[in-house]
Amino acid sequence: MQQQNRVTRWMLLEWVLLLAGAAPLPAVELPVGSRQVGKGPRPNVVFFFIDDLGWTDQGFMGSDYYETPRTDQLAADGMVFRAAYSNGPNCAPSRASLMSGLYTPRHGIFTVGDPKRGNHRFRKLEPTPNKVVLDDDFVTLAESLQSSGYVTASMGKWHLGNDPTTQGFHVNVAGREWGSPSGGGYHSPYRYPNLVNEKPGEYLTDRLTDEACAFIEEQRSKPFFLYLTHYAVHTPIQAKEELRKQFAARKKGKHHSNSAYAAMIASVDQSVGRVLDTLERWKLAENTIVIFCSDNGGHGGATSNFPLRGAKGMLYEGGIRVPLIVKWPRVTRAGSVCLEPVIGIDFYPTLLEATASTPPAGTELDGVSLVPLLRDPSASLGRSALYWHFPCYLQGRGDPHGGPFRTTPAGAIRSGDWKLIEWFETGRTELYHLRQDVGEQHDLAREKPQKTQELLAELRRWRKAVNAPVPSQPNPKYRP
Hints:
- The protein is an alpha/beta fold.
- It folds into two domains: 41-375, 3-Layer(aba) Sandwich (Alkaline Phosphatase, subunit A); 387-465, Arylsulfatase, C-terminal domain (2-Layer Sandwich).
- It has helices at residues 2-19, 69-77, 91-100, 104-107, 141-147, 204-218, 241-248, 259-281, 317-320, 347-354, 371-375, 449-465; strands at residues 28-29, 39-40, 44-50, 79-85, 151-156, 171-173, 190-192, 195-197, 224-229, 288-294, 321-327, 336-338, 342-343, 386-390, 394-395, 405-407, 410-415, 418-423, 429-433.
- α6 runs parallel beside α8 (259-281).
- The longest helix is centred in the middle third of the chain and has 23 residues, at 259-281.
């Protein structure tokens, strides 16, 4: 039945594309600096977007417990970015920025759901109102690629509204407004858009991979954009039992020890391998850009982000620094490593350039293309700083000042090796030198007052430029 449903779906997609007048795309110039300069077909794009995967949750990033052989091989075949960031410390804002190419103040999705999370007695300020749906006014990355002739599919978590097909995707499998698996979680029976299984036992990560491989096979003659946005490894921590047992029998790692979480990561790794094998089987690998990334830092209740400080929900490195691999055959050099800071909004202009696509007139993007780095990892983007704005509250342990929150409203800036965090409730600032102190253990704000004021002035200048709202209204229910 599942195979029949997939066949029917792909036949319907072929019919839709035919009615839309989809035609073969012209050859394009490959980027200067690639090993095969000249005309060639436009590259396919496969984007693995993993949910809550921590910076060191992969073998290639140093884990001594989690096993990720296929992702490790992808890293060995492509380029690893050691200073890659999400645009937000949790799911929705980072996804909205990825799709829109804009910093969070421009689209208004700052957090997941209610910005007033946590006990009202401890919130000093009224946080900024939060949007939960990406406005249709924004031209998404998928819409730009679709209008350029790409067949587009979103498979898995969407979290920006109830239907990604209204935002540039021809196909939606299992994507709605929710942020974690619904119904039975990762095990069937479950009911998602275009994905129903009433029989107990199927694992969601495996099924999404089935759908992704079928899509690649059916659309192999056309350029495609596959956004494989797994719900894993988001809570609930539910794994395939046979894999969990394997990890439970192993020696624990120095910082990683959760066998169920390790098994979830292993299933994601198997998904990567199966998709890459499908590209190889249909001789598409040499003309496909593969991106592997996480939407934010690892969840503190499931994994350790050591040596980084903090976890998902915080503006410390553990909440926003993410693993990133890009493999672009004939452009990226196998085994290369890039240390330049990059961020989620950069994917949109990067893929526009890589696919020779042009967004509709008037589209404004905040990111910059990473193509110069993909050609040469030692290149510089010439960008002065990266910025974060989180005018909301998140409950949970982790606040450095002894409070009951993972974070209170705050903003942050990274400029070169320097990073500053500003806390809106108190005006407190923290300053760190990340090259010397990646774990953010030594606050230099008092030792370096000139650098502190320089970065604070730049952060505030940026906030004014993007019209970022800073909460200032006192919470009448606050009881210190």
